[in-house]
Specification:
With 104 residues, the protein is an all-alpha fold. Helices cover 86% and strands 0% of the residues.
Length: 104
């Protein structure tokens, strides 16, 4: 896989993960404000963006599994950082929303 394609995939991951993080953050804010329905809608939008990020990331994984050389660069590392941070925040947001829903 050439450097241009790796860079394009990296930017896609950054974009989708960034969108997802924003939706998850907004979902928690809406839950704090007592707007459960809106919070759930935002959470679902975030989940959809995460699916897109994972789908794009899978292209890299499949290419490497097939024996293709995937050029690693700082942008790809940055993209992976964004994705992992968003995955972590998604889990925290989900737990926070459950706690708020129960009123504990």
């Amino acid at each position: 896989m050439n450097e241009e394609r790796v860079q394009a995939i990296s930017f896609e991951i950054i974009g989708y993960a960034g969108n997802a993080f924003s939706y998850f953050y907004e979902a928690v804010e809406e839950m704090l404000a007592g707007n459960k329905e809106k919070a759930m809608e935002l959470y679902e939008l975030g989940d959809q963006e995460m699916t897109k990020a994972h789908k794009v990331q899978t292209e890299l994984l499949v290419s490497e599994a097939r024996g293709e050389k995937v050029d690693t660069n700082v942008i790809l590392i940055h993209a992976q950082d964004h994705l992992m941070t968003t995955i972590l925040y998604e889990r925290i947001a989900k737990q926070m929303m459950r706690i708020m829903e129960r009123g504990t």
